[in-house]
UniProtKB/TrEMBL annotation:
InterPro entries: AAA+_ATPase, ABC2_TM, ABC2_TM_bact-type, ABC_2_transport, ABC_transporter-like_ATP-bd, ABC_transporter-like_CS, P-loop_NTPase. It comes from Seriola dumerili. SUPFAM superfamilies: P-loop containing nucleoside triphosphate hydrolases. GO terms for cellular component: ATP-binding cassette (ABC) transporter complex. The lineage of its organism: Eukaryota, Metazoa, Chordata, Craniata, Vertebrata. Gene3D superfamilies: P-loop containing nucleotide triphosphate hydrolases. It holds the Pfam family ABC2_membrane_3. This is ABC transporter G family member 23-like.
């Protein structure tokens, strides 16, 4: 039975081959696309398995198959956005992405399954953008645009893509693929959501354009019957072709009246043979050895229209000049991408304002809310001395009463208050405080009772964040230290020693230097860095998800050009952010800047560029925006803390300190502090080290992003 099915299949194959050869125009030996033994997997999932497919020049090839059989994957391999694991693909004579070949480029028009359109663009912007990339003059673009708007029945050219219906967007996407009159059209389900009249019109147009013999089309569709208008159909299932031939021949072979029936029969036969082979002890898995058709090698389609298996593998070569030109970025593409970004920014003024103002808001909040002196701290005072001339009264009057609000209370109320969380501390004086303190000052040796009675007693709620003085901030405890004398104990005896410390004019900084001054340079760098990381990662991940990166790539835009264009347009945003940041920190918050403003600006810009490069790494490695956000957020806090931005690196325990020194912002923050507060220049190691580390990270991130992108295609 199995042999019978196979020999029948063989006979039909031969008949169909004769039919196809008869259908080909005389002298038709050119092929637009040729795939030989193509394999492609996603991880362990084998999607394409020894697939052979041939699209003759000047033909429409309808690629049909159930959902998930690998059609889109195959088209992506053909245009070169996905690398094949094995086999060979030639498109218009050379492998995709071969140096000097215009595939990807203007020779191919690609309409991906996703809409892959910029929502903020108008129809006109969309077609102009692709026209620029393909090097069309504005007159040519305009002429094609007028034709396409009319032909595809598109709304007004100035309509925004985001306001179009699903079907209208799909037609705009098709228009973008048809724009430059490419030699090869690769259309992934262009007729989904399109009404039958327009669908017929699109097919009619495809039939028209292939008549010249110069244009070839490969099209996938779920409407199997519409593919009867194709010159050749390929029926695909489980990653390989079940049949390939003219639609009539395929139907004739299976005595079917429709393509759909023919396809169903093919699937049934395939399943039958699969189960036979599965039950046969000699048979292996279908993917690995032979296909169901007459036990032949799977690499042979039912109807081969290309050369046989013995064909020679052509050698392709390009000289070094062509290779070098291929590697070099094209300014035309970079300019087109930059104009695209600027148009999008213009169309999203809210988002642009957010990008400009967010750093200023962040740094203002840091300057206003961090490092200031505490105000209105409630402290209970239990003073058992009643005389107005008592020392306790004088001491209490020395406290900064703007910061500490003294609440005179009885001993019981004060302690109840502190237990109830109403007061941050209790200051207590004994009833003989003045006399005991006098004794301690004039007598060389005093009893423990005198020491105790002549001391200020302080009970603190040490859960308070103000327990430790920090970088000159006037905490409650610090005030007490300033007011009190220093007590020394020597040989069991207590002495009161007043330490005569005089703070001279500092070498660098001022006596009023506070915590905010310490934090600000690092904060400026980290704000610039993280905004750049977030915006870059998000914009690239979204563009990739929406198929925009792939579409631009097929239009001939390289990854390097995409990265450079983003870098240049983001530099504009960073420049405005930095101008606003510096205006605020220098003029509004009066941070000192003793050094060169140019160096300050360059260092901040370079940190922004490092952020962009790191964003590129994230977007190259991660596919969805949620994971990209998590990655950006995940590194934000640890990096902020161990870069010595909030607290000096010298306080970090040793193993972590080594990590800290290797981070992009540790030396850079130090360098910025040295420039701004010490007035140092590039001749100082602490300054050039910050620049060198930043440049090093820049280079590393850019190379890493490029490598990841290369590995992932
Ligand atoms: N990026 C990816 N990672 C992992 N698996 C993928 C990826 N893209 C596609 N696949 C899987 O590969 C198989 C083929 O997908 P493909 O999109 O090529 O099918 P298709 O024939 O175009 O389907 P449809 O007609 O529904 O668009 C599917 O099982 C799909 O789940």
């Amino acid at each position: 039975m199995f042999n019978k099915v196979c020999s029948l299949s063989q006979l039909k194959e031969e008949n169909m081959k004769a039919d196809l050869e008869a259908s080909l125009p005389a002298g038709q030996e050119e092929f637009a696309i040729r795939c030989r033994d193509v394999c492609r997997s996603y991880g362990k999932l084998k999607v394409l398995s020894n697939l052979n497919l041939t699209v003759p020049q000047g033909h429409i090839y309808g690629l049909l198959g159930p959902s998930g059989c690998g059609k889109t994957t195959l088209l992506k391999c053909i245009v070169g956005t996905l690398k094949i694991s094995r086999g060979r693909i030639t498109v218009l004579g050379k492998p995709p992405a071969f140096p000097g070949h215009d595939v990807p480029g203007k020779m191919v028009g690609y309409m991906p399954q996703e809409l892959a359109l910029y929502n903020e663009f108008t129809i006109s912007d969309t077609l102009t953008f692709f026209g620029r990339i393909h090097g069309l003059t504005s007159k040519e673009t305009q002429a094609r645009m007028d034709f396409l708007v009319d032909f595809l029945d598109l709304p007004q050219k100035q309509s925004l893509v985001r306001n179009l219906s699903g079907g209208q967007r799909r037609r705009v996407s098709l228009g973008a693929a048809l724009l430059q009159n490419p030699e090869l059209l690769i259309l992934d389900e262009p007729t989904v959501g399109v009404d039958p009249v327009l669908r017929a019109k699109i097919w009619q147009h495809l039939v028209e354009i292939v008549k010249t013999g110069k244009v070839s089309v490969i099209i996938t569709t779920h409407y199997i019957e519409e593919a009867r208008q194709a010159n050749v159909v390929g029926l695909m299932r489980n990653g390989h072709l079940l049949a390939e031939g003219p639609p009539d021949a395929v139907m004739k072979q299976h005595s079917a009246t429709t393509l759909e029936h023919a396809f169903l029969q093919l699937c049934e036969t395939s399943d039958q043979i699969d189960s036979k082979r599965g039950s046969s002890p000699q048979s292996g898995p279908l993917e690995n050895s032979q296909s169901f058709e007459s036990g032949r090698d799977e690499s042979r389609p039912i109807l081969g229209i290309g050369p046989g298996a013995a064909e020679e593998v052509p050698k392709y070569s390009a000289d070094w000049k062509v290779r070098a030109r291929h590697m070099l970025p094209k300014w035309r593409n970079i300019a087109a991408l930059m104009i695209k970004t600027l148009v999008r920014m213009k169309r999203m003024p809210g988002s642009l304002c957010f990008q400009f103002l967010l750093p200023v808001i962040q740094i203002s909040l840091i300057c206003l809310c961090i490092g200031g002196d505490p105000k209105g701290i409630q402290v209970a005072v239990v003073n058992n001395e009643t005389s107005p001339s008592a020392y306790s009264q004088s001491l209490l009057s020395f406290l900064d009463n703007a910061s500490v609000h003294q609440v005179p209370l009885s001993h019981t109320d004060a302690f109840d208050g502190i237990y109830n969380g109403e007061y941050w501390g209790v200051i207590g004086f004994g009833k003989n405080f003045t006399s005991y303190l006098t004794k301690r000052m004039i007598q060389r040796q005093v009893s423990r009772e005198v020491v105790d009675g002549g001391s200020v007693h302080v009970w603190l709620d040490l859960t308070s964040k103000m327990q430790k003085p920090s970088h000159g901030s006037l905490s409650f405890q610090c005030q007490l230290c300033r007011t009190a004398f220093v007590e020394n104990k020597l040989g069991g005896m207590s002495y009161l020693v007043a330490l005569p410390i005089k703070f001279e004019e500092p070498i660098y900084g001022s006596l009023n230097t506070d915590f905010t001054t310490f934090v600000t340079p690092g904060a400026v760098l980290s704000i610039t860095f993280y905004l750049a990381v977030g915006l870059t990662a998000l914009s690239f991940v979204l563009e990739r998800k929406e198929g925009l990166l792939d579409r631009c790539w097929v239009a001939g835009v390289s990854s390097l050009e995409t990265m450079l264009a983003h870098l240049f347009s983001q530099l504009f945003v960073i420049s405005v952010q930095i101008i606003l940041l510096l205006l605020f920190i220098l003029l509004v918050f009066k941070m000192p800047n003793e050094g060169s403003l140019v160096l300050v600006i360059i260092l901040i810009v370079l940190q922004g560029v490092t952020g962009i490069s790191f964003g590129l790494v994230i977007s190259a490695a991660i596919d969805d925006e949620q994971s990209a956000n998590q990655a950006a957020l995940g590194i934000f806090y640890p990096n902020l803390i161990i870069s010595g931005i909030i607290w000096p690196v010298e306080c970090i325990p040793y193993p972590l300190r080594y990590i800290s020194l290797a981070l992009p912002q540790t030396y850079a923050s130090e360098a910025l502090r040295c420039i701004m507060y010490r007035g140092w220049g590039l001749s100082r190691m602490m300054v050039w080290r910050g620049f060198a580390v930043t440049l090093g990270w820049n280079t590393f991130f850019l190379i890493l992003a490029t490598v990841i992108l290369k590995l992932r295609t």
